[in-house]
Amino acid sequence: MRQIARQALRFATVGVLATLLGGAVIFWARLGMGAGLLAANVLGYGAGLVLTFLGSRLWVFREPGAEPAPWAGSAVGFAALFAAAFASNLAVTAGLLQTGLAYVPAQLAGMAIYSVTMFAGGRLLVFARPLREGPSDERP
User: Fold this and answer.
1) Distance between CA atoms of 30 and 36, rounded to whole angstroms?
2) Residue-wise pLDDT tens for the chain (140 aa)?
């Protein structure tokens, strides 16, 4: 259980850093460089996604005694996971809006689904690695 809690805290930390980086890039591109709204957002969200991928692969889901996930496979898996999580976010938000729920709670529910999907998919699918042979680092 400690492993999941540690990974969840690391996941949240990377998420906050990616949000700050993405926002900074958006404002720099839009206000400092004169980029259009779409271009600035693509750059900002792209920077945040790259940081999230690197943070997830190298820190959040990397455990002592485990080989790191291969670069190419984890990048493809991360892109597919992002697409699924983003689609889930949109589906939940749109579905809740159809029930008459106000936008803000509907969007917050969609964002929660996105975050849970990204964490679970990263932990169980994209970055999951078998442990090497040897003594365990985990204490009971």
Assistant:
1) 6
2) 798 999 999 999 999 999 999 999 999 999 999 999 999 999 999 999 999 999 999 999 988 777 777 899 999 999 999 999 999 999 999 999 999 999 999 999 999 999 999 999 999 999 987 655 555 555 44
Residues with Cβ within 8 Å of residue 2, at least 6 apart in sequence? 138
The residue type found at 66 is A
The two three-digit tokens of residue 85, written as one number: 């999580």
Query: Could you tell me the pTM of the whole model?
Result: 0.84
Nearest-angstrom CA–CA distance, 105 and 31: 30
Q: Which amino acid is at 15?
A: G
The ranges assigned to domains in the chain are 1-60, 69-131
User: DSSP code of 99?
Assistant: T
Sign of the torsion angle spanned by Cα atoms 102, 108, 114, 116:
negative
